[in-house]
Amino acid sequence: MLSWRLVILFILLVLIQVTILNQVAIGGYINPQVYLLFILILPLNIPGWLLLLYAFAMGMAVDMFSDSLAIHTASTLFMAFCRPGIIRLVSGSFEKDSGAAPSFGTMGGISLALYSVILILLHHALLFFLEIFHFSEAAQTLSRILFSSIFSFAFVMIGFIILEKASPSHLR
Fold this sequence. Notes:
- There is one protein chain.
- This protein is mostly helical.
- It has helices spanning about 5-20, 35-40, 50-65, 70-90, 105, 110-130, 140-165.
- It has one domain (about 5-170): Arp2/3 complex 21 kDa subunit ARPC3.
- α3 packs antiparallel against α4 and α6 (about 110-130) crosses α7.
C-alpha cells in the first residue's frame, strides 16, 4: 500500500532531481541521483511486483522531465530487480520479514551503507553505459560511474538521516 508519506517523498525527490540536480554537472560529468532514495527506502518486505512498479514510476517520472529516452527507467528497474538479492547479501541481524524500511535503526550503518553503495553502483553503471551506448569511452564512463556514485551515495545517506530524524519513533 502506498502511504501519503511515500507519495510526498516521491514527488519531493522527483522535484529535487529534475529542478536542481539534473542542472548540476560537477566537473562536467558528475551527476548526483538523489531519486534513488525512493527505491532504497521502500519496506524490506515489499512484494517484488510492487517494487518494480514503483521503480518504473520513479524512473519514468525522471525520464519525462529529463528528456532522457527511458534510461532512468531501465536503470531504476534494474536496481529494483537486484534489490532483494542485495538485501539478502548484506542481511545481518535485521528482520527482513517485517514491514520496516531500511534505515540505520533497522539495518545498522554498515549494512545500510553497503546496501546503498551496491545498488547505486549497479544503477549508475547501467545508466551511464546506456547513455554512452558504446565502450570506446570506457575509462571516462567508469570514472563518471565512480564519482557520480560517490556524490549520489552522500546525498542518499543524508536523505536516510533526514528521514530517520523526521519520522515519528513509532514508525521506525
